[in-house]
């Protein structure tokens, strides 16, 4: 069982390797966003929410080497706002409403969804477009509505949700490394 899982992960990594130039370009673009005073917003559900929070934690804290804290918000992490929005507007609006509150033209929204069909994540991407916020998606297999809607996307071809999520973590770390490199962060 474990050997099958590792084999699936290795195959997904092989297929996703071609996305390295895109992730490097995202890192450069994100460095420019931060240098201009912008921020990164991130959203997802379940394991994808954990990945979104992992990303923002690396940015507000640090990835490998010391650097200034960067403005990054995981939209699910404010439990009071999240539960109030769900109560008053429904779960489909939970991220879109926060994008309207926190997003500014030139910011970046990273949308994570293993299926690419999560209604509330798709709604967040639509809200971001209304505001002039750049949208990037990390999803499972294409085609899917989220990847099609976002300004750019990396889709992971993998047989299970777990493998997609593990590849998303590798992509998040790749984005952090590319960002730090673009910012000139060294030990």
Mean pLDDT: 97
Helix content: 55-70%
Q: Main β-sheet: number of strands, strand sense, barrel status?
A: 5 strands, parallel
Class based on secondary structure composition and strand pairing? alpha/beta
CA-to-CA gap between the ends?
A: 40 Å
Count of helical stretches: 8
What is the subunit arrangement here? single chain
Number of strands: 5
Physical arrangement of strands within the biggest beta sheet: 2-1-3-4-5
Q: Output the helix-strand order.
A: HHEHEHHEHEHEH
Q: In words, what does this structure look like?
A:
- This protein is an alpha/beta fold.
- The chain is 57% helix and 12% strand.
- It has helices spanning 2-16, 20-35, 47-60, 79-89, 94-102, 119-131, 145-149, 161-183, and strands at 40-43, 72-74, 108-113, 134-139, 152-155.
- Strands 2-1-3-4-5 form a five-stranded parallel β-sheet, sandwiched between helices.
- The N and C termini lie far apart (40 Å).
- The mean pLDDT is 97.
Which features would summarize this protein structure in a list?
globular; 187 residues; five-stranded parallel β-sheet; alpha/beta; single chain
Which secondary structure elements does this structure contain, and how are they paired or packed?
Blueprint: H1 2-16, H2 20-35, E1 40-43, H3 47-60, E2 72-74, H4 79-89, H5 94-102, E3 108-113, H6 119-131, E4 134-139, H7 145-149, E5 152-155, H8 161-183
Helix pairs in contact: 1-8, 2-8, 3-8, 4-5, 5-6
């Amino acid at each position: 069982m474990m050997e099958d899982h590792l084999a699936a992960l290795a195959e997904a990594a092989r297929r996703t390797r071609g996305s390295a130039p895109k992730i490097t370009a995202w890192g450069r673009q994100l460095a420019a966003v931060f240098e201009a005073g912008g921020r990164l917003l991130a959203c997802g559900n379940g394991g994808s929410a954990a990945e979104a929070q992992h990303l923002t934690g690396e940015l507000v804290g640090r990835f490998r080497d010391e650097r200034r804290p960067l403005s990054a918000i995981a939209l699910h992490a404010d439990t009071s706002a999240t539960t109030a929005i769900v109560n008053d507007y429904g779960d489909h609006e939970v991220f879109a409403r926060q994008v309207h509150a926190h997003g500014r033209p030139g910011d970046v929204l990273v949308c994570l969804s293993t299926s690419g069909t999560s209604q509330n994540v798709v709604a967040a991407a639509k809200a971001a477009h209304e505001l002039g916020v750049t949208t990037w998606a990390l999803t499972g297999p294409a085609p899917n509505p989220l990847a099609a809607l976002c300004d750019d996307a990396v889709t992971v071809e993998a047989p299970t949700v777990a493998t997609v999520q593990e590849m998303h973590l590798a992509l998040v770390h790749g984005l952090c490394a590319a960002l730090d490199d673009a910012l000139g962060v060294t030990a």
